[in-house]
Amino acid sequence: CALPILFLCTPYFHGVEPNWGKFYSEHYSRIPSEVRQQVCASLLGIEEGRLFQWEMVPPKQLGGGKTRISDLLATDLTLLAYKRFYVTLILWDIIREVPHATICSRYQPLSRAELLRLTDLASNFAMMTSSFTTSLGWWFFPPLFETMAARLSVGVEPDLLPLMKIEGLSAKRA
Predict the structure, then answer these.
(1) The pTM is what?
(2) Cα–Cα dist 29/88, whole Å
(3) Per-position pLDDT tens, the chain of length 174
(4) Is 53 exposed, middle or buried (0-12, 13-18, 19+ CB in 10 A)?
(5) What is the dihedral sign for C-alpha 161, 149, 109, 4?
(6) Which of 80, 92, 126, 170 is positioned for an S-S bond with 9, CB 3.0–4.6 A?
(7) 111 CB contacts (<8 Å, ≥6 apart)?
């Protein structure tokens, strides 16, 4: 499953506000149950109960009236992780070759321009992460991030990446 690597390739600050009313019922529920248990809960820390709760009562904006620094940081970091996961689900649809019109209607009010900006941001972030892990000597990670950057830039499954190197060939045609 590409979700953990895709989550690491998702930029922290992306400008997309989740539609909390649909996050659990329409987006999170589309993930296969074994992936939800193994990847979302254990690796990424995404709790199904919290998504269900926030579908009923959306979380407050960052800060939310907290007075203690420790409370502020814990709440804000949790909220940022869930917002980042929401964007990861959008990017997951892109690399699974879901048509852009379907993605935009599924994640309203996301426009096509915002979707293209988001894919560019994520692709660049993946390449920067690849460079960072190379400089740290973590030899296992750079190929993963480079492959994900290529998939995000053209929006295809990994088996179509060699075809996308042919000049003039679109993802739809490949």
Answers:
(1) 0.84
(2) 14
(3) 788 899 999 998 888 889 888 888 888 888 888 888 777 777 888 888 888 888 888 887 544 555 454 554 656 778 888 899 999 999 999 998 899 999 999 998 899 999 999 999 999 999 999 999 999 999 999 999 999 998 898 877 777 666 666 676 665 665
(4) middle
(5) positive
(6) 126
(7) 104
